[in-house]
Amino acid sequence: MSTQSTIYLDYASTTPVDPRVATKMMEFLTPEGEFGNPASRSHRFGWKADEAVEEARSHVANLVNCDPREIVWTSGATEADNLAIKGVARFYKSKGNHIITSKIEHKAVLDPCRQLEREGFEVTYLDPDEGGIISPEAVESAMKDTTILVSIMHINNELGTVNDLVKIGNICRKNDAFFHVDAAQSTGKTKIDLENIPVDLMSFSAHKTYGPKGIGALYVRRKPRVRLEALIHGGGHERGMRSGTLATHQIVGMGEAFRLAQEEMKNDHSKVSAFHEKFLEKVKEIDHVYINGDINNKVPNILNVSFNFVEGESLIMGLKDIAVSSGSACTSASLEPSYVLRALGRKDELAHSSIRFSFGRFTSDEDVNNTLDILGNVVDRLRELSPLWEMHLDGIDLDTVEWSTH
Amino acid sequence: MAYSRKVVEKFENTLNNPEAFKVGKFDPKETNVGTGMVGAPACGDVMKLQIKCEAKGNTHVIKDVKFKTYGCGSAIASSSELVEMLIGKTLEEAKAIKNIEIVNALELPPIKIHCSVLAEDSIKQAIEDYEAKQ
Question: Which residues are in the NIF system FeS cluster assembly NifU N-terminal domain (chain B) (predicted)?
Answer without folding.
Answer: 3-134
